[in-house]
Amino acid sequence: MQGFEKRLEKLVEGTFSKAFRSGIEPVEVGRKVTRALDADRQVGVDGQPVAPNNIGVYLCPEDFERFSSFADALARELAEGAREHARAEGYHFVGPVTVTLVADDELKAGECDVAAEIHEGSRVGSLVLPDGRRLPLGEETMTLGRMSDCDIVVADPRVSRRHTEIRAAGHGFVVTDLGSMNGTVVNGSPVREHPLEDGDEIRLGNTVLRFEAS
Question: Fewer CB within 10 Å: C terminus or N terminus of the chain?
């Protein structure tokens, strides 16, 4: 979680510093979120721990107003921190991870509460590109390769024109090599077809992408 906390600390720099003069520290908010995941996790039907994915961060109206201009940036970082914590602890999600900032009249300046619930959702997944962009996955098959008509164009000379595809299957997604010259590798092992799990690293040539289940 050190990378997550460092990113939150950066939010106090520049324009963000004005928002946190009330005493609320982004790192403490992040820790409250991860503690909520630990406290409210449940055991799924398959025996695996399921973490809450619908997270509310409650602030007093004054603090909520201060955060309003960049609430989306903070919410994105908190959601990413929740995903990182879930991967580290072996938790799973049954729906997309959402973080919402909410004004609460009962809280005083500098106070923060976090509530987290498990909300089932439709099949959700995303692919994190090397530049940090996150592309959502859905029911449509996504192709990856060097050709311009691929859904994700990978500018890597070791990647074939149509290298691999990711498609919905069952309750999740699978990656399938399309007969590429250098193969598709998941977590260090060559695969022909492989069901994806949260945090899996997919290597095409010299390019590494990460699958997230939320």
Answer: N
Residues of the chain with pLDDT under 70: 1-24, 122-123, 139, 170-171, 214
Place of tokens 């799973």: 92
**Cα→Cα distances 22→93, 112, 115, Å:** 33, 11, 21
C-alpha–C-alpha distance, residues 10 and 12, integer Å: 5
Residue of 99, 103, 97, 33 whose CA lies nearest to 68? 103
Of 98, 89, 139, 88, give the one whose Cα is nearest residue 119.
98
Q: Cα-atom radius of gyration of the chain, to the nearest Å?
A: 19
92 secondary structure, DSSP code: B
pLDDT digits (tens, 9 = 90+) for 57-73: 998 888 888 777 778 88
Tell me the pLDDT tens digit for each residue of 151-163.
Answer: 999 999 999 999 9
CA atoms within 13 A on the CB side of 164: 26
Pairing state of beta strands 98-103 and 54-59? parallel
Angle at alpha carbon of residue 48, lines to 42 and 51, rounded to 5°: 40
